[in-house]
Amino acid sequence: MTPTDGRSRTASESKDTTTITTTTTTAITNGQATAANSTTGGHTTEDCLEVTIFDEGVDGGRLPDVVAESKIYGVTDEDEPLESYLAITIQVFIPFLIAGLGMVGAGLVLDLVQHWVVFEKVNELMILVPALLGLKGNLEMTLASRLSTQANLGHMDMPKEQWHMIIGNLVLIQCQAIVVGFLGSVVAIVMGAFRNGTVSLDHAYLLCASSLVTASLASFVLGLITAGVIVFSRHCHINPDNVATPIAASLGDITSLALLSWIATILYECIDKQDWVAPLVIACYVLVTPLWVWIAKKNKYTNDVLYFGWTPVMVAMLISSCGGLILEFMVSRFENLTVFQPVINGVGGNLVAVQASRISTALHKQAELGTLLIPPGHTHPVIFITPIANFFGKGMHARTTRVLMTMVIPGHIIFIYLINYMKDGNTSMTPLFVFVYLCAAMLQVAALLYIAYIMIHWMWKRKIDPDNSAIPYLTAMGDLLGISLLAIAFQFLYLVGDQDFDTP
C-alpha cells in the first residue's frame, strides 16, 4: 500500500486468461464517487474498489488515494460476519468471570498477607504490589494481544511458525519480566526512602530478589497458559481477542501475589542468618539475562519488540507505582480497602484489554501500520470521537463497548458479594456501599474504554503497533484510576458514616 501523490490507482489480482477482461473501477475521492466501466467482451470479470486513505508519509500529511487491498471501513466479508451481541457476550463473559475469581482470590490473599511479618516490617512491599502486579499483567496481556492478532491473521496456522512465534515470545517476556521486576523494586525502594527517610540494604536486597523471582517464574508459567489458550481458541473457531486477555489475567494476580509473599518471607527469614542468598539470586538473573536477550534478538517475531517495546512498560510502571503510594497511604486508614483493590483494578484492566486487542486486530486487518481508512460520511480519518459516538455509535467497536459496559455491574456484584461471603460477612455490604462502589467501577471502565479508542487509533496513525504499546498504558491508567476512585469511595462512606471501617 503506497502513496500516489493524489493520483488514483486501481489494484486487482492478475488472472490467467487468454481472452478479454472486463474492468470496473470505482474511485472515491473527497466524498465524491465516479464510476467508469470499459467492456470489450469476455469471460472474466474483475471488480476493484478504491478508497481514500490517510497515510503520513513523505508527502507531508496530504490525503493521497491509496489502494486498500484488505478491507473497506464498515464493510465485512462473508467469511467474517459481524459478531453478534450474544457471541461477544458469551465469549467474553465466561473468561471474565474466571478472571474475576482470580482477582477475588488475589484480594483475599492480599488481605491476608498484609498482616504477615514481612509486610509489616518491609513497608515497601505494599508499594511494590500494585506496580509488580500491573507490570506482570501488562506483559501477559501484551503477549495475548500480539499472539491473538497473529492468530486472527492466520500466521499461527502452520505448526512450525506457531512454535517459532510462541518460543520467541516466551523468551521475550522473560527479558521483559527480569527488567520490569528489577526496576519495579528500585521504584519501590526509592519511594519508600522518600516516605521513611532511610534505606535498609537488607530490605533493598529482599525487594529486588523477590521481585525478580516472582516476575520471572510467573511470566513463564502464565506465558505458556496464554499461548495454549490462543492456540486452543483458534482450533475451536473462537475469537482469541475475546478470551485470551481475561484468561491471561485470571491466574496472574493471585499467582504473582502468592509467589511474592512466599519468596519475600523466605528471604526475610534469611536476613542476619544467610545474607548471601538475596544477592546471589540477583547475580544469577543478571548473568542469564544476556542469553534471553540474544535469543529474542534472533527471532524475527520478537526482534522489534525487544528494541521498541520498553517505553510503554516503563511509563506504566511509574503510573502503577503512583497507585501503590495511594494504596499504602489508604491501607493505614481503611484496612478493608485491600481486598477490593485487585478486583476493581483487574476488572477495568481486563475489559479494556479485550477492547484494545479487538481494535488492534481490526486495524491490522484493514490496512498497513500508519494508514487509517476514511469512515463513510467523512473526508478524513477520525481519531478523536465524542463519548456519545464511542458508546452509542453503530460501528463494531461501539457495539463491543456496550457489551463490555453491561458486564461491569453484574460482574462486580458477583465479585464483591463473593468477597463478603469468603470473609464471613466482615465487609459490611450496605446498599450505599454497593452503590458507591459500583459507581466508581462504572466510571473507571467507561473512562478506560473511551481513552482506548482514541489512544489506539492515535498510535496506529503514528506507526506505533498498539499490540505492543496500548495495553501497558491502559492497564496502568486503570490501576491508578481504580485505586484513586476506590479511595474516594471509602473516604466518602467514612464521611457520611455509612459503616464502621477497620483501623489497623
Automatic annotation (TrEMBL):
A GO CC annotation given for this chain: plasma membrane
Annotated SLC41A/MgtE integral membrane domain residues: 129-262, 341-488
Region spans: Disordered: 1-26
Keyword Transmembrane helix: yes
Record localization: Membrane
Key words of the record: Ion transport, Magnesium, Membrane, Transmembrane, Transmembrane helix, Transport
Main location: membrane
Pfam families membership: MgtE
Record's compositionally biased regions (Low complexity): 17-26
UniProt-listed SUPFAM superfamilies: MgtE membrane domain-like
Protein name: Solute carrier family 41 member 1-like isoform X2
Organism: Pogonomyrmex barbatus (red harvester ant)
Name of the coding gene: LOC105434311
